[in-house]
Amino acid sequence: MTVLFDLVLCALMLLAALAAIGGRGLFRATVFFVAYGITVALAWVRLGAIDVALAEAAIGAGLTGLLLLGAVARLRRAGAPEFPVRAGLVPALAAAGVAGATGWVALRVPGAGGLWTEAGEALPLSGVENPVTAVLLNFRAWDTLLESIVLLAALLAVWALAREEEWEAPVGPPLHARPGGVLEGMARLLPPVGIVVGVFLVWAGASQPGGAFQGGTVLAAVGLIAALAGLVALPRPDSGSWRTALAAGPAVFLLVGASGLALGGLLLFPPDWAKAMILTVEVFLTLSIAATLALLVLGPPQPRRMP
Amino acid sequence: MTGSVVLFVVTASALIGIGLWGFLVQAHLLRRVLAFNVVGSGLFLLFGALGWRGGGVDPVPQALVITGIVVALAATAVALWLVGRFAEETGRADLPEDRREDRQEKSSAGGRP
Amino acid sequence: MNALPVVILLTSLLPAAVTFFLPQEQHAWRNGLNLGGAVIKLGLVVVLMGAVAEGIEPEARLPLAPGLDLVLRADDLSLLFVSLSAFLWLLTTVYAISYFGEKPELSRFFGFFSLCVAATTGLALSGTLITFFVFFELLTLSTWPLVAHKQDDQSLAAARSYVLYALPGSVAVLVAIIWLEGLVGTVAFAAPPDLSGVDRWSLTLIFVLFVGGLGVKAAIVPLHGWLPGAMAAPAPVSSLLHAVAVVKAGAFGIVRVVYDIFGVARVQELGLGTPLAVVASVTILWGSVRALQQMELKKRLAYSTVSQVSYIVLGTALAGPFGTIGGLVHLVHQGIMKITLFFCAGLYDERAGARRIEQLDGLGQRMPWTSAAFSVGAMGMIGLPPIAGFVSKVYLGVGAVQSGELWVLAVLGASTLLNAAYFLPLLWRIWFLPPQTEGIGATPIPFAAVDERVPGLVVPAMLTALTSVAAGLFAASAFSPLGWATLIAGGAYSP
Amino acid sequence: MTVFTGDPLALLALVWPLALALVACWPRLGWRALDLLPLASLPALALAVTGGSGGAPDVLLGLVLAPGPEGRLLLGMVAVVWLAGGLFARGAMARGEGGRIAAFSGFWCLTFAGNAGVMLAGDAITFYASFTAVSLAAWGLVIHDRTAAALTAGRVYLVLALVGEVCLLMGLLIAATAADGFAIGAVRAALAEGPHGALAAGLLVAGLGIKAGMVPLHVWLPLAHPAAPVPGSAVLSGAIVKAGVIGMLILLPDGDLGIALIALGLVGAFGAALWGLTQENPKAILAYSTVSQIGIVLVLAGVSLVFAETRLPAAAYAAHHGLAKAALFLSVGLVLAAGGRWRAGALALAALAAASVAGAPATGGAAAKAIGKAGLPDWLSGAVTATGITTTILLVWFLVRLRATAAAKGVPKGGGRPRLLLWGPPVVLTGAALVAPVLLMPALGGPDPAYLWQGTNLVEAIWPVLAGIGLLVLLAPRGGEGARRAPLPPGDLLTLLPHWRRGAAPVRQARAAGRGLGPLRRTLESAAGRAEARLVRWRWSGVAMALTIGGLALLSASEPGVAVLIAPAGAPISLP
Amino acid sequence: MTGEVALAVLLLGPLLAALGCLLAGRQGSTVALLALIAGAAAVVVLWDGMLRTGPIEVRLGGWGAPLGIVLRADGLAVGFLAAAVVVMGAVWAVARHDFATPRARDVFWPSSMLLWGALNAIMVSRDLFNLYVGLELLTLTAVAMVALGRGPGAIEAALRYVLYALMGSLVYLLGVVLVYHGHGTLDLDRIAAGRSGADALALGLMTAGLAIKTALFPFHAWLPPAHAGAPSPASALLSALVPKAGFVMLVRLWFEAMPDATPPAALAVMAALGAGAILHGGLMALRQERLKQILAYSTVAQLGYLFVMFPLVGGAGAGTAGAAEAWAGTQIGAFSHALAKAAVFLCAALWIRAIGSDRLADLAGLARAMPLSCFAFGMAAVSLMGLPPSGGFIAKYLVMRASFELGLPGWGLVLAAGGLLAAAYFYRPLAALFAREPPRVQRTPRLLEAVPLALALAAAALGVLSQPAYDLLQAGAPAYARGIGP
């Protein structure tokens, strides 16, 4: 039964992927991609990795889809190349070769067993109950710290695309939400719910699936809807408060990590204080991630053409 | 369960292959980014499938995959905004070297301006 | 005493470093610095000479990486070259100061000029192959801006062709060095490597690479193409370039390679002496033939250098005591004679605007001292006694006979005749022909206004001319270049 | 540092003229530099009388001045000739153009230094250096008049002189190598026995022969002598060619080489005399006479080589010839400068000198011949005697032409009475030529002077002269000057050569390496450009990536890494 | 503990400084300066500490491998940390004057600090996945800098860069997945301790991915437009430092993580790619008409130099003095390339400021107007050509000697040819600078011109002081690259 479910799931994934890659029409391809993302999230659920499933759904399918859709809209007028450029045999063989070799090796070579045991043994000392969170924020906190910085770097790269004369303008495209419209109504309703969900995800992350990234994504989504509805004024890139919001999470993470030096080592969370420290980090990180993701989606300041 | 592991591994590999093929042959930049994401998720899925035991996945790959997803998002965002700016400036959604009409000229002139 | 080679190097290096940063207007400082360095250097070289004559061989060492030590070491061979360069540096500096006066870009010029001399000094004092290479390259680099100094198209083209030739040459040398060191470890001149374990073909190839690479600098045909063009440089540069710096570096390198790395016996055993002699001979003749065809004075002198420098190589290739002495002594003799000629060529150009040989007509009347010095240099080049060139020729000839290479005599003879053929008409024009009535050159200088009386230009030319006479006339004296060369050759053949 | 050893006079003989040459360069001096000329040879003359020797070990490769008897004899002769020439020049050239005269004077002194040096030299290097000086500096004497003929002659002279230099040096070097030293004696021995001795000797003969005017290398001589000013011609013919002669005498080894010298000498002795008859210019005729006389010297020298005898007779003959020939040349100048009876007197003086050259009885020439013939085999002795005929014919022809030339020129201004400085030197030289050989006969290995007065010997001396005059009368073209064919140009063999082009044929220089590499570079660059255009496309990059992945994976999987052979500590371990 | 603190300063300091720059806005450069001073001090402490006690290892959070991440500052890492701080300092001095507009300023200063932080993180990390995250951070900041460029091609260049980078990271990550599968760990030392059947493919994948990121031939096509298109001080960072991160990762991978999966043939493939880079990059550089493009292609070629090391260190000569020479030579080459390439790009920055162009034709005669920077350019070019006296020469010498000692002279000859090509393509700008007619220039402060000169002198000094560098590189080098020296 499960095998059948797996089969169907895998077939769906492949079909969605093929449609996303090879589908005619950009918009359709993007929609298929979102659908593909959801099937992948399902697959993660099937694999029992709820944290990843959440992240895939929120980030891999959701935010990425949002970005793609925005890009599709912006590219509507751009000259599009033929599709595909030329589907020769050689590239296909190359792709198949790499993928096939990977699959073959992955199946043929016995696994070493991963780090189940080690993670399990260390979990009590980590300050959290969710092993994934423990890995993310304690065992491999350095990765996560860098990761949060990666988002910031991406935002800087996006901002770098702004034209010099538009730097003082608010980020994102000009929005024309009708006051009192559906969007506004939704936007008034959603944020409180979204904030609650987001905060819960963070809080739960310590013991159950969820965490700063997933929570941050939800908050970002909420913020975006509010912004789209015109409820929140879009910030300028040089806005001090927004920059503080962007920097707060990584900064707190860095300071907490550095404080570990006083406690015996870099990025060290003594078991007794670990929970409090991690939670502090997570709260600020969520805030910053939300801000960063939202700004990433909004993009650089863009020309305000009066209609 | 082994059967499912095989299934997921094969599927993940196939996703990687599909994405890779798309990346190689597509000229439209947005489709390239899309293909990149397909490869990425296939790869993550492979990671998960290989770390799959019983009711769950090895927590370390899970954490790594989450990190990977976020990093991929960051890269995607940068790429997409770049594509947008590029289209704004040139009116095209593909790079010059991938345009068929230019190819003849390219190979004879050799090198970009 | 061990620091002495380093100090001698610094006497050129420090002025170079400081000069670069001197403002253009600081003529007094710059001149003082360069002259001071040159005088101190000459003094120190004399001290060093004394030390080496007593059998002390000072050595200073700077380890870079394992197996890669910069070693400065003074032995009698290096001293021969160092003393030549120190002496000529002083004179050339005096000459250059007068030549340039207060023209622009002098800080750059003198900076590179001193750097070039520092490189030559370092090259002479090198104790290991790799040290030699380091300075060899420094020389390449520091001479480029000198050749290009005028910054006109001709100079830049000349500089370009210089680099085009020099760098592949350097690569060949580097490959040879590294190949050799890969086979036998670090090579120091003081202790020639044991090559007995190395196969014949490797050794031959290494030798060919060495000679090919160094031959570019030494302007061995067909690697000489850069040299005639390089005469586009200002006269002091040409003087230094042709007399001590670049071409001599190449020749000196070949001497080192043959004597202190391979050893004469091994070169003969490998059967490389005769081919090298053939190459040198071809160069000697070809350079002379080409010189004959040149109508520009400095070009003619340049081809003459091509020809003359190969005398050194020839002497080395002959691999007998007399040939060695002849080659070594020609290292010095050619330097002082050729620098005289270039000093004079500069004088003719600068004071009378004469660049082409027909413009020399009658200049002996207005520029007797210059012309006298030029005549001495030219006759020395031909090999007329008692000027220095004669001594070289005698030793080379005896060396050739000793080695049983009688055909070399024919080469020497033919070269003498060719030298006469391209130098004597110059003397004829200078001394015997009536001056051209219309002015000379692009901006004519009236013949009556030609005036050579600039002590800074004439005195160095006179001094080198006198030196070349003295070197030949008192060749048998122990303190003559011949005396030193004999001493060195004694070292090379005693074991 | 030893400045000199031995007799300071020896060194002074050499240094003194060099110093004078430098003084002549003093620009203020102008034509007064001529005053230096007679002074130049005084120390050398003194040395020839006292016969000292010396050296300067630090100079050149060890300067040795040790003249042998031949050298000393010729040194004395040369000094006298130069002295006389110098005086004559002072008289003939005074108040000329200052700069040119000064140059002439400088070259004069320098040439003399070389000329003295070759006679004094005790080592090969000194000999060569002096030889160079005498050869090349003499060029300055040849071209003094700057006429077209002088310049052509100068060029031919210089080219041949340089060739001679080179041959000489090469020969000396071969010999010196074999001798392991430069001493003349050792060099001569090495030429006989050392390796490549024959080659070296050949080179020496060529090098010295050019200078001496040996047939067939004499071609410069008939060109140069007429072109030079009179005192220049005198020293050229009288003294300078003897530099070649002395070289042959002191350097060439005993042996069969002498046969070649004899053969060449005979050809020269007769051939040149006959060819001289084709000439009109009295100085050209004298020049051929010189070639002819040198032929006799060569015969004598050759004989002394073959029979390993003393070279003194040849030197003596050369010495006499030097004096007499210089006297003849000077008298040419004297005849042209004189008028009236003074001219007749001058012609008589010339005839006297000519008689001595021809070996007329009781002259120095007869004495010299007697000395020379002492050791000759009969047939050679006869040949030498026979040269008297040709010489007589030639010299009479010379006198005829001289008279005709003077007549054509007319009487000079000032009444035709020459100054003392013009007539004194030829008179002294003629006197010396007539007397000195006779006086020195015993000292030079010849018979007693009384020998000359014995009847048979008188007859033997006089018949060639008479025969020559008779032949001339018989063969002289009738019909006066006009009927004669146009004169042949001097330079005989040289005129047979096609006109030689000046300068070497243009040689195309190999293209600069950089330009040669150009096409290759362009090809490579455009190939790189094409590759770049491909690699920027993911179509290709991706395939390359796949290939890299696959290739590395396969290679990596195919065998274990070498690094695994090394244990962490660095000690090699073996694979199981 | 001092070592750990120093390491913390080098890792966290730049990141904190980046956040500070973001907040400080106008005062961004001051914040950056403070971080650089601290970083420089930390490098000194680290260098000293490492020479005294050997490589400094930090187990982050106290966990250690396999669960946690281990950092180790060995000689290689410290060398690159030092090079990075020097280059960063120089770039700081020039960039302070160059990024005047708010946008450029606000993006550049945080990005540059992030770039530095990412570099530092990569140099010391011993964890394959952590390296991946660091590399992504590095790439994105680099893209940000390219996108800052004003030229029309900058966006296109950034785009191309991103595309290559995306694919590179994916392929690398695929390899990481296989390694984790096969070894159950991501720690380099633990990977080295075991063997897995997946190693071969993982090595291939990771190598290809890193090769793309390092712009190793034939995956270099993105680099020249990107480095030429970025603002010049940024180009200095990009060209001097960024590709070295990928290189160091490759070195760690091949020689520290998987020494048992690298047979001579595979090593030769790497060197062959390097040789291809040397020749292709050199030839392409010859074709360019703009200075920065020449410099960018020169980077392609110079990166090739580094890969010639592979068969020399890991091949048959492993453990011999030759291997140690090749190892040290290559790393010294990388350091001196970093210094010299930064110097030439900073020269380009100054010249573009002064004359508004980097076309060779427009540079004509600049030597007269800006002698100091032209001299610096010349000296740096000397180092890049591998001529003495310079670090570049020592590097070339050591590697070439190793190649001859180990009986693989072909690789040495490729280096020699590369030196010639470098001379050829550097000759053109040098000759242009030296031409007669001086162009109209805006005045540049002398002090600013001294910055590239200082870098060029440092590159030259590396040639004279290569013994300390050699000693440094021996600390913590893999066993078979640790020779005693002849």
Distance between the termini of chain D: 79 Å
Instruction: Supply the number of structural domains of chain D.
Output: 2
Query: Which structural category fits the helices and strands of chain C?
Result: mainly alpha
Radius of gyration of chain C: 21 Å
Mean pLDDT of chain C: 87
Poorly predicted residue ranges of chain C: none
User: Proportion of β residues of chain D?
Assistant: under 5%
Element pattern of chain D in H and E? EHHHEEHHHHHHHHHHHHHHHHHHH
Radius of gyration of chain D: 34 Å
Largest sheet of chain D: 3 strands, antiparallel
Within the largest sheet of chain D, what's the order of strands? 1-2-3
Helicity range of the residues of chain D?
A: over 70%
Number of helices of chain D: 22
Please tell me the overall pLDDT of chain D: 83
Descriptive overview:
- The complex is a heteropentamer of chains A (307), B (113), C (495), D (576) and E (486).
- With 307 residues, chain A is mainly α.
- Helix content of chain A is 72%, strand content 0%.
- Chain A has helices at 2-22, 26-47, 50-74, 89-108, 116-126, 131-139, 141-159, 182-205, 212-228, 240-263, 271-298.
- In chain A, helix 5 (116-126) packs across helix 6 (131-139), helix 6 (131-139) packs across helix 7 (141-159) and helix 7 (141-159) packs parallel to helix 11.
- Chain A is globular and about 60 Å long.
- Chain B is 78% helix and 4% strand.
- In chain B, strands 1-2 form a two-stranded antiparallel sheet.
- Chain B has a single domain (2-109), classed as Helix Hairpins, CATH 1.10.287.3510.
- Chain B contains 4 helices and 2 strands.
- In chain B, a hairpin with a 2-residue loop joins strand 1 and strand 2 (56-57).
- Chain C is mostly helical.
- Chain C has a domain at 273-495.
- Chain C contains 20 helices and 2 strands.
- The longest helix of chain C has 32 residues, at 153-184.
- With 576 residues, chain D is mainly alpha-helical.
- Chain D folds into 2 domains: 1-253, no CATH class; 254-496, no CATH class.
- Chain D has helices at residues 8-24, 37-40, 42-50, 69-93, 98-120, 124-142, 148-179, 184-193, 197-212, 220-227, 230-251, 257-276, 282-306, 312-337, 340-358, 364-373, 378-409, 420-440, 455-475, 493-496, 513-535, 538-558, and strands spanning 5-6, 54-56, 63-65.
- In chain D, strands 1-2-3 form a 3-stranded antiparallel β-sheet, with helices on one face.
- Residues 479-485, 498-516 and 564-576 of chain D have low confidence and may be disordered.
- Chains C and E meet through strand 1, helix 5 and helix 6 of C and helix 15, helix 18, helix 19, helix 20 and helix 22 of E.
